[in-house]
Amino acid sequence: MAILVTPQTRILVQGITGDFGSRHAKLSLDYGTQLVAGVTPGKGGQVFEHNGHKVPVFDTVAEAARETGATVSVIFVPPPFAADAILESVDAALDLAVAITEGIPVNDMIKVKVGMAGKKTRLIGPNCPGLVTPGTGKDSHGGCRIGIAPGYIHKRGNVGVVSRSGTLTYEAVWQLTSRGIGQSTCVGIGGDPVNGTSHLDVLKMFNEDPETEAIIMIGEIGGDKEEEAAAWAKANCKKPIAAFIAGASAPPGRRMGHAGAIVSGGKGTAAAKIAAMKDAGIAVAPTPSAMAETLLKHWGK
Amino acid sequence: MNIHEYQARELFGKYGVATQPGRVASTPEEAEKVAVELGTKELIVKAQIHAGGRGKGTFKNGFKGGVHVCASPAEARDIAGKMLGQVLVTHQTGAEGKLVGKIFVGEAVEIARELYFAVLHDRATSGYTIIASTEGGVNIEEVAEHTPEKIVKVAVNPALGLQAYQSRNLATALGLRGPLINQAVKLFGNLFTLFVKCDCSMVEVNPLVVTKDGRLMALDAKFNFDDNALYRQPDVVAMRDKTEEDPREVAASEFNLNYIGLDGNIACLVNGAGLAMATMDIIQHYGGSPANFLDVGGGASKEQVTAAFKIILSDPHVRGILVNIFGGIMDCNVIANGIVAAAKEVSINIPLVVRLEGNNVAAGKATLAASGLALVSADSLDDAAQKVVAAVKKA
Fold it and tell me: Does pTM top 0.95 for this prediction?
């Protein structure tokens, strides 16, 4: 079953005619994803063509969803317009909005969260690589690729991956695939301090998903969401979890790339997160190179 | 991004946050003029640098202290002359110190009580939180650790903003009574407005003081701004003082590189922030010490890689370089060509270990092997980290 999206999920792209959005829309089409609509205000009526695919472009998300049955939106619009784009997909009552955009002001995200309260739409991101439910074809073709992750590194299988980082997720996925171990769904929740979906949200979904048998959780310094997820897992998670926390070597007070990755006031240290994970019975990889290996050992494979 | 104390006071002035009267000066004559205009009995003269510990610092010319209380405009001029154009060394500046180009001249207020007040983004609530304490003028983290009951936290509903009743509750929790309550409502409300309007991520007023003559004012403040919002804050950007920043970080930002200098001797060049942090971690795991955090982003063009190598090599402590690229969408061969071209242009004379993985990796490795460069190719992140640590130890 996977979580959040399946190969049948119909998605639309907000910002499909921009450089970034069009490039990744094409890669998703090549991967076999059901990318059924694009949205660019003012360009409604155009057709986005790629390798024989003809994707209609609409002026609004509401129209795109109504006309094509898309239930998920992926957002590539630039930071100044991204909060509005997220709220538009929330207002159109989509199931899921995935915000890839990096650099959205925190005040805008706070506003978005207020606007989302009580609505049905789930947000993933922003500043995230998106999510992939791998397909069963060659190089996992035929899956649902939402965002910017390389599709071919995946393989359909039974490990759920959740992470705050992009390339570090690819690293984990690749370690699994190279060992012949596939994934149910890989979710990048993003590196911003105020975001839509947490580690805990995704863990709960993996726990309920019959296809997911084991989990890799990748965190980093800053905040306390990894601790929150670990505390829940200790009491509730039925499946083996391996984790890695990036940033053990980062000095306090310096922001390490992601807006959320900062140790301040003695909070959010790698040591505290690793301790919380170990306490919850989660196997913690000693290095980023050992994520898959650590999971396989813990899983008894 | 950080700002100077005098700039913080200017922002306070603009938003109606009560602060100690005073102004910035760039020459001793100007300092005297400001002092005369203030017309107060006692004056305070403060060197303007971003680093803390100014009061206990020493100038390289031997003059002690970056903060002085003076009794007359003439004395303010004299003190200003000893500070301006001189280098101040504090426990935060490092031995090289910071050049003082401006000073703040203000009224020396008589303090009755020192309090603490801060506004910040709260990721736990996806909103705003105010932290206040009766224990001002000291390190708030220590207060939080030893006497947490002396800290008051108030969550602000982002849809409503800070309400007057919340400010009154905060004021009474701080022991403010009588006319001070209304002063607090005004100060807290205006400070919250400033926080939101200027896209701050934290404003920490420490100390917030009650003067002996019954005024509530912000005596010193630390501002952090949300970097993501700087595009719509031209007035904030105008306050940026690049001379206060690490020149390597300034150079990196011009090439859209995310660089942070650290104390070690193994430089890293990585695509992606999480992977960059993880690369630093694995270097440390194998007994090495990372010289920097460097995220070249998703694209990593030849120009960016060249600029990255130049910045890395401008750090005299660097004894080895680890390049770690997971080319997901990017063609590894394009990246390999970028590395070769860049390495030739900047002539690297220290061990260079390259780990490439991902799209078209075989061609990328072949390009590196055929380049004639004295680089070491690695098969995994683990292998790469061990190789660079070993090479640096041997050198």
Answer: no
